[in-house]
Amino acid sequence: RGWPENVNFRALRGLVRMRWAQAATKLGRDAARMLAGAHEDFAECCRAAPRDPTMLVNRGLAWQAQAAEDAAKGKDSRASLRAAAADLTAALEIDGGSTMVRGSRGEVYGDLAQEEARLRQDAENSFRRAIEDLDAVLAAEPASLRDLGRRGEIHRRWGSYRDLRGEDPRDLYRKALEDLTRGHALRPTDPGLLCRRGSAYRDLAVAENARGGAAAGLFRKAIADFDVSLARDAGEIASINNRGLAWLGLGHAQAAAGQD
């Protein structure tokens, strides 16, 4: 593309550093040094090629990786997520047709909403922006498994946020289930997707039980999803924890209905 040779090298090195940092964060190791190097590389690339959307996307994804590292250390990740959203927005202003970039921005807004909710801030606008981006992506690519999973999980988190505020979350949980069931039809054996859908069934069951609705069947569906998830990946910790909570919830629901 006519970049100086060192920019090509720095872009590649930045990507390697970012991936290394992401792996370190997942393993619970300190990723600060690698992330600092990635930020330095991508900042130089953006200075050399300020109108290249790829460079902006790379820097935005590095900010998203920084946010994950912040969260792992118990730090406020909002500044990193806002920087990520700003870079992805700048890339979309240059190449507005990229569904990959818009889906990534939707995920970032979803993470920002989750962090705002954790810090007891108003998260409604960030949740709405996340869903708007993913609605646009799925309108163009309705069979995108990744974005169905993203939108389903964000609907579920939005429902949890509404529930904590004393609002009825059930419509959002049902929307989450619609997306995750569509994703399940595309890849029936994905343990992570089954874990997410099981969590949505459990959350809806809890909400129904709290409002006098029929919850036992929903808890059973949650347990069935967690069972299949664990059959595929016995180390899926979220499925183990959530299955236990679903069994507990089923017991409460049966007691409320006068069943053994």
Write up what this structure looks like.
There is one protein chain. The protein is mostly helical and 260 residues long. 80% of the residues lie in helices and 0% in strands. The chain is built from 11 helices and no strands. The chain is elongated and about 65 Å long. The model has no long low-confidence stretch (mean pLDDT 93).
Write the layout of secondary structure elements.
Elements: H1 5-26, H2 32-48, H3 53-72, H4 78-94, H5 99-118, H6 124-140, H7 145-164, H8 170-186, H9 191-210, H10 216-232, H11 237-256
Helix pairs in contact: 1-2, 1-3, 2-3, 3-4, 4-5, 5-6, 5-7, 6-7, 7-8, 7-9, 8-9, 9-10, 9-11, 10-11
Low-confidence stretches: none
Structural class comes to mainly alpha
By DSSP, the count of extended strands is 0
What oligomeric assembly is this protein in?
A: single chain
Give the helix tally.
Answer: 11
- Coarse morphology: elongated
**SSE string:** HHHHHHHHHHH
Rg from alpha-carbon coordinates: 20 Å
Mean pLDDT, all residues: 93
Largest sheet: none
How much helicity do the residues have?
Answer: over 70%
Termini Cα gap:
70 Å
% residues in beta strands: under 5%
